Amino acid sequence: MTQERTFQFQIRVSAGDLWRFSMYHANKGYLGIFNVLFTLGSLYLLVTKWGTAQLYQKLLLLICVLMFTVWQPGLLFLKTARQARNERLREPVTMTFAEEGFTVVQGDQSMEVTWDQIGRVVGIPGELILYMGRIRAYLLPDRILGGEKEAFAAFLREVLPKEKLKKV
Hints:
alpha+beta, 4-stranded antiparallel sheet, 4-stranded mixed sheet, 6 helices, elongated
């Protein structure tokens, strides 16, 4: 008789976890490429035209340089800090993963999910994201996974098809 492997994590999402998730979505794909090119172009113009530019042009270029490097991350952090104070997010979620799927328990509510209901799993620095669909996801921060992160990632690679995994 083989013993079934299970992983259980008690998750309490922090503002930092939500911020990493938001930054990933705000800067992935073509939008991220645009943000980098826009910032570098603005920085280039700011440095090369500093001596000849008028004050309003310098301020405009400075705002453009800071837009995606300081302003956007700061606004996202303020938004996620408000979200993290939400009572529903402050209540811990217990997730138990097994070969056939996983169970999510929060308070007196529980839900069972089979692996075929998972849209994809994405690994970003600091956390794994389990997408249930386009707008619903579970965050598994590295601080929660701890020493089990590699074993859990290997487990996910076994139970999910390769096309549903990204950087796991």
